[in-house]
Amino acid sequence: MTEEISKKTFDVETEALARRCVAVCEERKAAAILLFDVREQTILADYFIVCSGTSLPHLRAISDHVRRELQAAGVKPRGTEGSPSSQWLVLDYGVILVHILMPEMRHYYCLEDLWDNRKIIYRGGEPLPAVRPGQGRGTAVIPPHLTSATVIPGVEAEAEAEAEDEDDAGSEGEDSHPSMS
Questions:
Q1: Which residue pairs, CB below 8 angstroms and at least 24 apart, start in 149-155?
Q2: d(CA 126, CA 30)
Q3: What is the pLDDT of residues 99-153, one digit of tens each?
């Protein structure tokens, strides 16, 4: 019984902490803030926060203020990844993962598609800024480790065979008509 009460208390405190992270993101004018309750879907974290900044200094400001606020509450991150210049920052608090991305990176990676929309327990902030022409899903800055072509055995051969079949079908049509000379 005591263990069950302790777990419920922990869950309430964890959700309150996640909501405090969201409030800091709101205060710092983060865009398109989503808070997911992913306790039933993954063991990585209980809550998953995704938000966007509109510039590299804005990413830094959101990240710094979340860190300061949680540090004031006695919670330190288990780890942090990324830098504003990478356009994607991750703050790992164990039970809470906070992802802060530039809109172009967010459109490209679509992190929110990893989780069921029914698991969103908070949606707020300004809408994502419109993607500037020449940017967005098809043209976002792609990290170098993702730019090399991936060869899947058999797939290339199938594509070439299909292309040859199409060429053959086109040339059969030409040969079947008598030439007009």
A1: none
A2: 7
A3: 999 999 998 998 888 888 888 999 998 888 766 545 444 444 444 444 444 444 4
Query: What's the chain's length in residues?
Result: 181
DSSP result, 147-175 = TSPPP-TTHHHHHHHHHHHHHHHHHHHHH
Residue 176 gets which letter from DSSP?
T
Q: Scanning the structure block, which residue is given the tokens 């509109």?
A: 54
Can you tell me the distance from the alpha carbon of 104 to that of 54, in angstroms, rounded to the nearest whole number? 10
User: Which domains are present in the chain?
Assistant: 2-142 (3.30.460.10)
Buried b (16+ CB within 10 A) or exposed e, 8-45: eeeeeebbebbebbbebbeebebbbbbbbbbeeeeeeb
Q: Which helix (H) or strand (E) holds 57?
A: helix 56-72
Q: Kindly indicate the confidence band of residue 32, based on its pLDDT and cuts at 50, 70 and 90.
A: very high
